[in-house]
Amino acid sequence: xxxxxxxxxxxxxxxxxxxxxxxxxxxxxxxxxxxxxxxxxxxxxxxxxxxxxxxxxxxxxxxxxxxxxxxxxxxxxxxxxxxxxxxxxxxxxxxxxxxxxxxxxxxxxxxxxxxxxxx
Length: 119
What we know:
This protein has helices at residues 3-25, 31-49, 53-61, 66-117. It has 119 residues and is mainly α.
């Protein structure tokens, strides 16, 4: 890898890590979601700073062309991220349904109490 490209990749991974940490510090990003992004940033930093890392990953996975290993790792990360957010959306949907049901019960109780009080 060209030295300039390596420096740019290291800087980009460092910026990603700093942005995620700053978002967590400002309470704009929950820690449980930040862990995924921190892991991605660390992985990018390792792949950018260690010359033979991509070749080692490609050999480990049995891939002949190392840049294809990078695409495989990126694809796996995106699938993991999609699964994680799908689970979060499903959980929030269930919680919203339960809250709507509880609200309907409370409104019914309030309306019933009002009817009992009026002459």
